[in-house]
Structures are given as structure tokens and as C-alpha cells.
Amino acid sequence: MSPFENRRSLSLLLAPLALGALMPWATWLAAGRLDCWMMAVATLGVGMVYLGCVHRLGDLELKLRRALGRRYQPPPPEVVLTVCLGLAASFVIPGLSCGALSEVIGSPRLEGVVRAYVPDEMASVGARVSLSRWAFSPGTRLAFLSDGEARMTVSRDGEPVEFASAWRPEGQKICVERLCMTVDRASGRLLADGDIEIGRVRQVGVELPNLADRFGVPWELHNLFANLSIR
Fold this sequence. Notes:
Elements: H1 7-10, H2 14-31, H3 36-68, H4 77-105, H5 107-110, H6 119-125, E1 127-131, E2 141-144, E3 149-156, E4 159-170, E5 173-176, E6 179-183, E7 189-192, E8 196-204, E9 214-215, H7 219-229
Parallel strand pairs: 4-9
Antiparallel strand pairs: 1-2, 1-8, 2-3, 3-4, 4-5, 5-6, 6-7, 7-8
Helix pairs in contact: 2-3, 2-4, 3-4
């Protein structure tokens, strides 16, 4: 039987794919961050390891061909196709795994900007939050500045209008006036009413030098908390 048809031999090709899935997680744990060049090196490395495994199976196939002579039968086309698809997967899997890691820990932790999402620490540098589409209309933006000012941009008559209000950290919560949201330390998710995700910290370190258009908390945020409180 051809090495490419032997399940035990073919399972050798699964090792680089598993390595590619674990590589981003292991690199982030070891270095504390994951840069683009790290991902490029990891992806290239996984592809080279896969090709090395294919080369090893090819050497075994050559020995078998020499031993069998005319009785030798090449592997079927579907096996060859599987090996080729495995090569493509070896270049794709690290990127997919990196995307899953980013979804779990958030972009700032992935980039090594923060080790955890702590409101007291974010109060000194500021943070930008992406808001959930189910909770807010598209184009709504929220940023917490280092001077204790929260900026929320909403749509008014089709035009973006920026509101300024005060915010403060309270333990693991961020409070915009009397409206408080819990920040998950590991993922940066903003949770209202205990466990309902309304946004996520996407950037740590924000400066908005321009003045806001209006002052106060927009009704969109008040309505969200009001609706959640009467669920």
C-alpha cells in the first residue's frame, strides 16, 4: 500500500495543521503579543513543515515504487488532491486561528498594548469602544478619554453629532454619569445589566483634541439601559 494511502502515514500530514492552529496561541503566550511579522513567519514555517512531511512520504513512496517495480500503482487522484488541499490549509489555518484568538482576547491584548482590561488603567490613556449593532444604529461610536470625558457620536438628521459627558471607573465598571457597564478583564467586552454585551474595547490610547458638538448623554444610551432594566 502506498504511504499516501496508509492512514497512519497520512496522519503525519495532520501534525503541521495542528501546529498551525496552535502557533498563534503559543506565540502570544510566550511573547505577550502577536505582530504581523510573527504571523508571517509562523505561516511560512507551518507551510515548510507540511512540505517537509510530504517530502518524507514521497521518499517512502519512491522506495515502494522501486521495490514493486511494474506492480506499483500510484495513489488515486483523490489522495493527491487531499495532499494539495492540505498544503493550502497549512497557509490558511494560522490566520484563522489568529482570528479566533483575537475574538477571545480582543485586539489590544493581542497586540500587547494591555495585559488585561482594567478601567483604572484605561482612565489614564483612554479607550475606544466598538458598539454592538443590535444595541445601536450603524455609525454610533463611543470613546473614553483620559481626562474623564466620554465622547459618543450618534446620528442626528443623517449627520454625525458628538456628545461629551463625564465618565469614571468604579472597580471593574465604567460609569457614564449614572449608567454603568462592566468590563470583562479578559476580552474587553462591555456588559450591561450583568451579562448583555453592548460593545467591546477595540483600542487603548485615545486622544480627541476637538471640542464636542453637544454636552450630556444621548438618549440612545439612556433608552438602552431603560429597556434592559425592564426586561
